[in-house]
Specification:
Keywords: Glycosyltransferase, Transferase. This protein is an all-beta fold. The chain has one domain (7-101): Jelly Rolls. The protein contains no helices and nine strands. The radius of gyration is 13 Å and the shape is globular.
Length: 102
């Protein structure tokens, strides 16, 4: 899906790692939400509360999920992160992403 309809967007950005990772929250009528964001090159670690689906729209990166080794992720691919865990990212080129929460 390249377009969302009937949504509310939070005006203020979510800003992490001194502005190297930013996103905007998108809220749907059914109560679900996603974030749309950009990550600049760097190494990052994120914690989760809910299960997440990270869809990579553009970019060049590797992900390390809990208990796994590093895995290359390309534009058009996605990965899931369990709830109440953490994951690491190595971003090699500006990366555009959509994160869904469950």
């Amino acid at each position: 899906m390249s377009q969302f309809t009937d949504v509310t967007i939070t005006r203020e950005a979510n800003i992490y790692f001194d502005g190297k990772v930013t996103s905007r929250s998108v809220h749907f009528a059914d109560g679900s939400h996603k974030t749309l964001g950009i990550m600049l090159p760097g190494d990052y670690e994120f914690g989760t509360e809910a299960k997440e689906l990270m869809e990579i729209l553009a970019g060049d990166l590797e992900v390390q999920l809990p208990g796994e080794g590093w895995k290359k992720v390309a534009a058009g691919e996605s990965f899931e992160v369990p709830a109440n865990s953490s994951f690491k990212l190595k971003i090699y080129a500006v990366t555009d992403y959509c994160c869904s929460y469950f």
